[in-house]
């Protein structure tokens, strides 16, 4: 009995030990604590800040959420879409109809609009996934135009001229602004955590494998089509949430505003400037976009030309975006998703 125990112990010691895998780092943990403090501080803004600050935050939060969803779809999933405004506008219209005609509080209707956008993405994917590469990108734009024309012909929501969100009339203006701001802050935190936790999971690794080589990924047993559908639905859900939130703050919606291709164009700009395929990319890009919009938006057409030139310069000299350059040179990573073996 003693010999048997000794033999088993020897075999156990001889068995190779599984290597320890590290995902985070000390810097990322410090950044996480700093982010928590920053969010808690931001939550107090309605008590000491100005209403204009809250309105600006709500607007840039919508752009940020939309850009993060586009980055998830294209930067991580490899599905370059220029028609995600279809779900942005759909979420906004669902929120308005639930608020104006179903008597649902618009702040409760925001997540419901996001869910509706995610659900409508399932039948839309049956059409979009038949296309590949550039045809997929153009096809998503055509789908967004179909959405725009469809809502432009619905008289119940004001047709082409749009309509106003009347469900918030009974709420005091300051209360409405505070609730909109807190909802925007919660949506930003939820979007960042959703994307980060997804990419840290096994499904996130599968998504990266599909982006790099879908044929090889499928040969390894990864359900490529099901994974792409899941990412497409999640991206549509986030876009719908951004749209519903934006029009709660704007109080008015129209087909041209809700389904404008500018939403996707600005999202691409933010992701390219910050860094495609990085969670930090849309965050950095959104801050730069907000600063440029604040300083130069009065210049009209020249402002848009400047944005295009800046995107070209970054693409030529910083191929991984500004954050990608910083990460490669100094090793910065606020949201690490790569796994490393512990030395």
From TrEMBL:
Membrane topology of the entry: Multi-pass membrane protein
Transmembrane segments: 31-48, 109-129, 179-199, 229-248, 260-279, 299-318
One Pfam family hit: BPD_transp_2
Keywords: Cell membrane, Membrane, Transmembrane, Transmembrane helix
Subcellular location: Cell membrane
Protein name: Branched-chain amino acid ABC transporter permease
Lineage: Bacteria, Pseudomonadati, Pseudomonadota, Betaproteobacteria, Burkholderiales
